[in-house]
Recover the amino acids of this structure.
């Protein structure tokens, strides 16, 4: 089995607090890896480190080549697509403009594929992204990530804050996507994670606490307790 | 009645000068969060190149003035390009404070260069008669210089809006003003767009330098300082990153200033502008058109 | 930490005593001073240096301690100087009454303007404060309210207490400046060491978290703005005493921006650092031209002498050098200070708030 992304000894510090403490991770080619963990253990930090948004040390090897020292836009051009945690659509731009920004020289924009997955967007091309619902914005964000072919799609909490019906739609889209692409995603919704994951990684305190295949998700109740107990406890401190 | 129209024209042309400086600053700031203190000095520096051009031609002809305006604009753009490339680019990884100190340092050096080259005293700008005079517009005498300045600002505005709305670079700038990180996340080199925007800002500042001379008729090493300050005020009132807001705010500030200074008392205009700013912050802290991210 | 709570004040007091003794000494100036240490010219220069150091300390309360990048702090220094000079010149108020009234006036003005300026954050706040200060500068430069315009305002000698008048009383002026510096540093240190100071650093490091924890961030910032401005007003009064009047530079853009330089070069977030930064800046500002003039034709090429005689050029170059060559000297020192404070407060909390990602 080949790996698309290999991470060795990743340390990331934001400001003065160290978030990731020497993390090792392999993302297998053609599979979907889901990252779980309590709030604040560094899931988003991990994604943003891979993309080069945050200063970090350690080795990142993507398709056999090191990503060291590359700025974000060059990592993306190597074939990493990114759908961020809060969707981050350009609210003042139209849907069409949001998509056009994802076009890249030397790569064929796959508008047909995108409109197949999100027929709704086709009708809303002239609308500003800021006027869309949360679910629609998530679709714009996913569509941007899919417009150009990539070797790794990083999706950070795609179902966060969405209504159950919309969660189902997003999961359905991602099920279609995972057939063609290597996926690395953060997903706290265990139902969604269960439908998508091939491999599961649990983060704790900036390190990998547990890795395994989707069978980890079988004991959903215990996992949910692990994730949510921690959540409420952490909100209480300072 | 004539006085009224004269002050109207003056107010608008002062506002136009503010817009020339503020439009570039607003985009620069919107895109990279860099507040450039070098732009006032850039205006001054370019203005002196306009004076030199006029003196080189000898006679104050219309052609010489046009040449001076072009030279001044290009000098502003060229200096801005170099400043961005040599001094600002290495600072992106660092914080605001470093960028601020760099633009301040550049500003000081540019002004010192002007002082060393031309001395601290005002240098007069020779103007052709047809520009220093007035023309009759519907029975009202309007200074030609005011018309030129206002026309330049409107043209720049139209050009910038077309650039932002119709080109891919403009699209990147608009998106970058909203969220530069996400633009990078789509594989786009935002720094490149920023270099371009900074240079455009420099061109506009250079144009403002020549036109400021058409308006005040003499250059001093601190010519740009006051314009820079009012440009900042205009940006805040108009809403950071919004060019239409900047345009309206520039006219508003220029007019309030000139009318109050004339009809009330000297200095009242500056206080009125300050009151406008305070009112705006109390009522609408995001500025006239400021909605996070909207620039067109 | 407990030792530094005692050691630092003792060390500062010792420095104050040493400084107080300077008028009785007669050391050579080594080019830093125009004359021997106890000479009137040197004392007068040192007075100005101490006022700049004090002003930098007041600004550190904003930029260093609270993260408020005000470009308009110079306004309160200028208002302090101009209100004081104008009260003396145009009214029959006595020296000390005028001084007290000036300080009150600065506090009131600061309260009013900060109420407005703090409505916005970050760079908008910087621009607004800059705008306020610059309108002040314009009013002064254009001589709107009897400010004397470009040439400044000279104080009528009879309005100044005799103990500050004349060459032989320069030591008294010097001690007045030293006292101002001592008052400012003490007041600022009390703020920094109080719970209030701790909360301020909290708002600087993470305003969102402080809000979530129920702190009134706006109120905290308003309070520190008034304190810092009032102290700056006091510095303005001392400035008038030192130079026997005011000049437009006291509200100028140059000084406004230089304040940032002073605090940054000394290490943002440290009062002593700010004082050192103010000292360095004041020496550069006042002695560089003299160095340029002092070089005789022939000893260096005329162009070099000419360039040295242009202090703005050198200051600009020094700005750039500091940023490029000594980035740790700027950002590093500040970050170390932040780290110290954070480590002290961090405790068990590991949650990183959204804001940290942006």
């Amino acid at each position: 089995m080949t790996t698309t992304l290999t991470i060795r000894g990743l340390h990331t510090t934001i400001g003065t607090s160290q978030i990731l403490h020497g993390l090792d991770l392999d993302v297998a080619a053609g599979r979907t890896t889901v990252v779980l963990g309590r709030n604040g253990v560094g899931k988003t930090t991990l994604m943003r480190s891979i993309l080069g948004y945050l200063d970090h040390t350690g080795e990142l090897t993507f398709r056999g080549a090191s990503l060291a020292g590359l700025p974000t836009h060059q990592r993306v051009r190597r074939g990493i697509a990114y759908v961020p945690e809060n969707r981050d659509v350009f609210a003042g731009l139209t849907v069409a403009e949001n998509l056009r920004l994802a076009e890249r020289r030397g790569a064929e924009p796959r508008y047909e594929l995108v409109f197949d997955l999100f027929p709704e967007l086709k009708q809303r091309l002239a609308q500003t992204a800021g006027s869309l619902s949360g679910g629609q914005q998530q679709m714009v964000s996913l569509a941007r990530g899919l417009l150009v072919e990539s070797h790794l799609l990083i999706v950070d909490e795609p179902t966060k804050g969405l209504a159950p019906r919309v969660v189902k739609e997003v999961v359905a889209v991602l099920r279609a996507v995972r057939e063609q692409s290597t996926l690395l995603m953060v997903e706290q919704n265990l139902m969604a994670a269960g439908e998508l994951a091939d491999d599961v990684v649990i983060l704790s305190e900036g390190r990998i606490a547990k890795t395994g295949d989707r069978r980890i998700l079988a004991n959903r109740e215990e996992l949910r307790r692990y994730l949510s107990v921690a959540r409420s406890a952490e909100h209480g401190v300072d | 009645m004539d006085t009224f129209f004269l002050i109207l024209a003056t107010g608008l042309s002062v506002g136009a000068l503010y817009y020339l400086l503020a439009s570039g600053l607003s985009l620069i700031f919107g895109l990279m969060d860099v507040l450039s203190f070098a732009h006032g000095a850039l205006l001054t520096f370019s203005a002196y190149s306009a004076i030199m051009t006029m003196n080189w031609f000898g006679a104050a002809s219309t052609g010489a003035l046009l040449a001076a305006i072009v030279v001044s604009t290009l000098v502003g753009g060229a200096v801005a390009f170099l400043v961005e490339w040599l001094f600002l680019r290495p600072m992106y990884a660092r914080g605001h404070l470093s960028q601020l100190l760099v633009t301040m340092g550049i500003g000081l050096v540019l002004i010192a260069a002007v002082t060393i080259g031309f001395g601290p005293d005002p240098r007069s700008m020779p103007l052709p008669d047809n520009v220093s005079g007035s023309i009759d517009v519907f029975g009202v005498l309007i200074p030609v210089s005011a018309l030129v300045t206002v026309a330049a600002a409107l043209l720049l505005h139209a050009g910038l809006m077309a650039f932002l709305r119709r080109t891919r670079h403009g699209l990147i700038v608009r998106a970058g003003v909203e969220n530069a990180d996400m633009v990078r996340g789509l594989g786009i080199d935002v720094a490149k767009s920023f270099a371009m925007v900074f240079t455009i800002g420099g061109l506009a500042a250079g144009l403002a330098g020549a036109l400021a001379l058409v308006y005040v008729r003499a250059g001093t090493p601190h010519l740009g300082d006051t314009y820079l300050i009012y440009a900042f005020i205009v940006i805040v009132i108009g809403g950071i990153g919004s060019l239409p807001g900047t345009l309206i705010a520039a006219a508003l500030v220029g007019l309030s200033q000139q009318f109050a200074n004339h009809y009330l008392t000297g200095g009242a205009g500056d206080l009125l502008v300050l009151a406008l700013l305070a009112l705006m912050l109390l009522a609408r802290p995001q500025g006239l058109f400021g909605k996070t991210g909207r620039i067109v | 930490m407990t030792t530094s709570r005692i050691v630092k004040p003792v060390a500062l007091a010792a420095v104050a005593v040493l400084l107080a003794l300077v008028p009785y000494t007669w050391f050579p100036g080594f080019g830093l001073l125009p004359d021997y240490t106890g000479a009137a010219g040197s004392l007068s220069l040192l007075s100005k240096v101490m006022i700049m150091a004090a002003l930098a300390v007041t600004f550190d309360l904003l930029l260093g301690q609270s993260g408020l990048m005000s470009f308009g702090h110079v306004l309160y220094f200028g208002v302090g100087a101009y209100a004081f000079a104008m009260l003396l010149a145009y009214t029959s108020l006595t020296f000390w009454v005028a001084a007290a009234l000036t300080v009150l006036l600065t506090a009131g003005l600061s309260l009013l303007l900060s109420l407005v300026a703090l409505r916005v954050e970050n760079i908008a706040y910087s621009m607004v404060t800059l705008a306020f200060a610059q309108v002040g500068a314009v009013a002064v430069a254009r001589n709107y309210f009897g400010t004397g315009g470009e040439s400044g305002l000279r104080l009528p000698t009879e309005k100044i207490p005799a103990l500050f008048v004349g060459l032989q009383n320069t030591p008294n002026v010097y001690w007045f400046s030293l006292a101002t510096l001592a008052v400012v540093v003490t007041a600022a240190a009390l703020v920094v060491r109080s719970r209030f100071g701790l909360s301020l650093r909290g708002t600087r490091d993470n305003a969102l978290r402080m809000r979530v924890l129920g702190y009134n961030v706006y109120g905290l910032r308003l309070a520190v703005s008034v304190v810092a401005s009032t102290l700056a007003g006091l510095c303005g009064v001392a400035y008038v005493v030192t130079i026997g009047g005011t000049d437009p530079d006291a509200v100028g853009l140059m000084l406004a921006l230089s304040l940032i330089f002073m605090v940054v070069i000394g290490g943002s977030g440290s009062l002593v650092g700010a004082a050192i930064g103010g000292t360095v800046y004041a020496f550069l500002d006042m002695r560089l031209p003299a160095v340029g003039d002092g070089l005789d034709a022939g000893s260096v090429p005329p162009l070099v002498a000419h360039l040295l005689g242009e202090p703005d050029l050198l200051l600009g170059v020094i700005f750039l050098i500091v940023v490029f060559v000594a980035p740790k000297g700027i950002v590093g020192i500040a970050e170390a200070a932040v780290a110290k404070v954070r480590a002290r407060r961090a405790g068990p909390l590991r949650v990183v708030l959204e804001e940290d990602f942006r």
Chain A touches chain C through 16 residues (CB under 8 Å).
